[in-house]
Hints:
The protein is α/β, with parallel strands linked by helices and 759 residues long. Among the domains are: 3-73, Alpha-Beta Plaits (2-Layer Sandwich); 172-354, DHBP synthase (Alpha-Beta Complex); 522-638 and 655-688, Tetracycline Repressor, domain 2 (Orthogonal Bundle), CATH 1.10.357. It has 24 helices and 29 strands. Helix 15 packs across helix 17 (575-586) and helix 15 (535-549) packs across helix 21. The longest helix is centred in the C-terminal third of the chain and has 27 residues, at 673-699.
Amino acid sequence: xxxxxxxxxxxVSFNLKGFVLNTVRGVEIEVEGKSEVVDHFMDVLxxxxxxASKISKIEISDLSLQNDFExxxxxxxxxxxxxxxxxxxxxxxxxxxxxxxxxxxxxxxYPFINCTNCGPRYTILREIPYDRPNTTMxxxxxxxxxxxxxxxxxxxxxxxxxNACPVCGPEVWLTDSAGQRIQVQDPVSETIRLLKSxxxxxxxxxxxxxxxxxxxxxxxxxxxxxxxxxxxKPLAVMAPDLSAVSKFAEYTDQEMDLLISQRRPIVLxxxxxxxxxxxxxxxxxxxxxxxLPYTPLHYLILQKGLTAxxxxxxxxxxxxxxIGNEEAVQRLGNIADFFLIHNRDIYLRSxxxxxxxxxxxPRPIRRSRGMVPVxxxxxxxxxxVLAVGGELKNTICFTQGDRAFVSQHVGDLENAETxxxxxxxxxxxxxxxxxxxxxxxxxxxxxxxxxxxVSEKKGIKQIGVQHHxxxxxxxxxxxxxxEKVIGLALDGTGYGSDGHIWGGExxxxxxxxxxxxxxxxxxxxxxxxKVIREPWRMAxxxxxxxxxxxxxxxxxxxxxxxxxxRLSFLKEIGMDSVRTxxxxxxNNLNPVMTSSLGxxxxxxxxxxxxxxxxxxxxxxxxxxxxAMDSYFKKRIEEPGYEFxxxxxxxxxxxxxxxxxxxxxxxxSNKVSASQISLKFHIGLVHLFLHGCRIMRERFQLDTxxxxxxxxxxRFLLEKLSDLLEADQFKxxxxxxxxxxxxxxxxxxxxxxxxxxxxx
Length: 759
């Protein structure tokens, strides 16, 4: 991070003697001089640190005088107990960007320019301490000029481990789809020409390959979707600068700060009503996922008149991002027309991070490149454990003392390739942190690959943590809270303690235990997990159950079919399929039951005609949220649908029947999808507010923790938080790890750590 040269220059300016060095525990500094000068040095030190560095803790000890005659930067010291923090990869700094574009500079247009304030870190690091021999740059021997910079404490490239130039460093070249090198004078300029002509190019980046094409070219974007098997899920775009972004998206000051930050995440921005990008970039979506260039190579590619490039992960859907040159050609050769490749190896793959600003805070949706491996600091020191997360949006987490290290995004654990990456992440964290966990923590769902992986581990304690308890615990852990709270855990799927699928829960929970005190009434999932891909099945389940509950026991099927014939969404399905599902529900065939709010979102989206079948997880709920946007701005005081609350032996049961009946009536009366969506959302917000009030009175608690994938819904998070705070609740929500299952491993680790304290 440029910390040692900073300390060196500061100490020399104070005329202090001693040394600074890297250890596996952090940076060690020894200074001697007049006491008042040493005190001044210690006062200035934390206030003037380099821009990319962060001090987590300072420990000070008095030592006997050594009578040093100079201040030195000493070689790094290796030890067994490792606690040094590892830097994430950092976007190019302004100084390096200026040199990159300066024809008089010796690194003009060099794609791997960096200094101590920017460049690759985590993705090239084999082990700590972070020294060049421990990185993938070890194969490049610095030329005399680069070595002189590296050795000069006054130079900003002093001990910049990836330091290189065109004479001694990595190079970039262009190949065809079979990996055959194409002889061109300037591979980058040729890549720009290919992109402008509508070609798809796989570009090797910092944490893996991107698949790139011109975001204004309908044909190129459509072809990329077909080849990548990515039907409708939004594709990320990279624009050269804020001026280009403003042509197709709107952004607030907070969103701008995120875009230009050194983390350079993808930021979800509101689409402009009229914009030049292809309609295929983010169909049926009111946002674009936008990032700015973060490597020198990105800046060079985007220099020549491109408004934006598609920059999507270099993989086939559901597989990990490709990082090796041969691997990329083998896996992406049927997608990319060309490859822009280099020979600086990526040691560990890392997708781009994705964020959304809600209530003026960045909310991670995917926490990965630029954010990992920065730890989450816990309230207290815990026993070291490994938590393996869930199935969707998997991450793993190691704890070490008061730090929780959550891995980069692994992906959905649904195939051998992702499972191999999952194991790779575990091995890498164990190696660089030298952590030997005393327990391994898993989700209770027996079919998750992560759970099955744990079951095969012998000789180590295994701890299962319920899915929604882990969600609330992750929120508590990142907010430094270990007290009992009212926890709202709202998502699509989580294995419940009773064997049913949960997802619409109010828990009274801390970092040890939980009590389920309220939930949505169970409804059948006809066809099991098929309902996730086919939301119309859940719509039919909600409608049929509501109709049955309000009709005498001698219900006749013809009465039900008469009831639903006015619903247009079923015309696309066909009555034969409808009858099959009704029979499954009626005869209790394959009786998977759910209390999930995510499934209720899906069912309502289908019922009002938005989405019968989804192309990606969460699509129906996303489109239901977006449907209300323009209407909600005009009619914010619209009354919401009213949910019925039933008391069942001390547990609150939220019945959706009344709301479903009202929605069926509104659909029949041609009420707009926008208005129905708004009334549904408002009804949910008031339902949860009322539920929290009941819990406050019953348990004397006034802190509410909000977690689960449903809190990626801007309206739900904003409006519920506002109402809770207006009612004197303290609200905890996510801003360090995702509210979705990407934060699950943190919660698992925290629960296991606190449970082990009690043993």
